[in-house]
Amino acid sequence: DVGEIYSRLLDHRPVIQGEIRYFVKEFEEKRGLRELRVLENLKNTIFETNEHVLPKCEQAMHDNLDEAIKRLQAANSKIHRLQEREREERKLQADKLMAREEKRVAHREELMKEQQKKQAEVDEEHRKAVERLKEQYSEMEKELAKYVSF
């Protein structure tokens, strides 16, 4: 009888174990339902994304990429045309510069020939003037020699 009294008054394990089982059962059911709802919502979100959002995004991406590629190709062709024009302009400028240089060299050579010709003329005039002066001085010396002999 003491064992029965002891078990009723002091041994609470069966009651506590029952309460623990009840608590665990309630907790798992509520948690399980909550996790089930979360998983269901997640499944719906993934389905919605795969079925609707992803194709729209892919289509928008392809459309925008095609447009971007077209614009880039147009810009690339414009840049090539500009580079070609710039190359032609540089070639034209180089040709003009070469023509000016050739013209300048030809003009300089012409001036040098003209200067040499003028120098030859001046040298010839100088030589003739020196000859005339020599003749004039020699005549003056002859005349002076006539007067000196007196």
UniProtKB/TrEMBL annotation:
<dbReference type="GO" id="GO:0031083">
    <property type="term" value="C:BLOC-1 complex"/>
</dbReference>
<dbReference type="GO" id="GO:0030133">
    <property type="term" value="C:transport vesicle"/>
</dbReference>
<comment type="similarity">
    <text>Belongs to the BLOC1S5 family.</text>
</comment>
<feature type="coiled-coil region">
    <location>
        <begin position="65"/>
        <end position="150"/>
    </location>
</feature>
<keyword id="KW-0175">Coiled coil</keyword>
<dbReference type="InterPro" id="IPR017243">
    <property type="entry name" value="Bloc1s5"/>
</dbReference>
<protein>
    <recommendedName>
        <fullName>Biogenesis of lysosome-related organelles complex 1 subunit 5</fullName>
    </recommendedName>
</protein>
<dbReference type="Pfam" id="PF14942">
    <property type="entry name" value="Muted"/>
</dbReference>
